[in-house]
Design brief:
mainly beta; globular; single chain; 5 strands; five-stranded antiparallel β-sheet
Length: 64
């Protein structure tokens, strides 16, 4: 799965605050995510997060 820094992830399960979207701050063997609801930062292993992703929201910055 191709996930890059700056993408938003819509998750299958909600964060305890009620939000279901996360900002990708770091991508590699593990991900650093920030909850869009409460702003909580956390690290999660790639193998664990990839099976819980519902969709990837990518904002292309192709402005000329």
């Amino acid at each position: 799965m191709d996930i890059k820094v700056g993408d938003k992830l819509k998750m299958k399960k909600k964060h305890p605050c009620g939000a279901d979207t996360m900002d990708v701050l770091r991508a590699g063997v593990d991900f650093r995510l920030r909850c869009t609801g409460c702003g909580h930062d956390f690290f999660v292993a790639r193998s664990k997060i990839e099976k819980n992703i519902k969709s990837v929201i990518r904002e292309d910055s192709t402005h000329v």
